[in-house]
Amino acid sequence: xLSNASILRKAATSAIRRSMxxxxxxxxxxxxxxxxARYANATYxxxxxxxxxxxxxxxxxxxxxxxxxxxxxxxxxxxxxISRDDKTKSxxxxxxxxxxxxxxxxxxxLAGNARLNAIVGIADTYVQxxxxxxxxxxxxxxxxxxxxKTQTAAVQDAMKSQFPEGAKVVLESKxxxxxxxxxxxxxxxxxxxxxVGSRIEEVGRTAV
Length: 208
Description:
- With 208 residues, this protein is of the alpha+beta class.
- It has 9 helices and 4 strands.
- The chain has a 4-stranded mixed β-sheet with strand order 2-1-3-4.
- Helix 2 packs across helix 7 (119-133), helix 3 (53-69) packs antiparallel against helix 7 and helix 5 packs antiparallel against helix 6.
């Protein structure tokens, strides 16, 4: 028979393992650092535990959009003359019952810490975590003239080897006449310049 001490050790070990497994299940998919990341990481963990990751993302994007389109709301976020208590009360009045508790808690914590002006950056960082969770990779194609469907498909095919297997590619096309011709391609933090403009600059530097 096992002694009481052995039983207790076994139970404690099992509890620790369960706790570690639970924490790992809610861990953000990227290791990000800095002020925005600290709040975004905590929000991600709380949303994961409450199974509201997608809903919180939508709410944060809505708040970011309001900060961009409403001068009054943007001024409220930025104004250092409004006391922390008043900002906390205003945020609670605005969001209580209209958002998840996770989003409400983030906004009231930011208000209490005089950090509401960081919400746009925090929202962007949270979206970055969500894209990583979904396995999304952002790619941008910049051309001198709009690409037609056939050209876009050909570029996508040529880029496949640059993406991890199973990645969901979120492709954006932009037009920039200043590159003269060719393409510029941005994949995550990688940048490939195949434009005519860059080749002309290179020739010019070589000639000098």
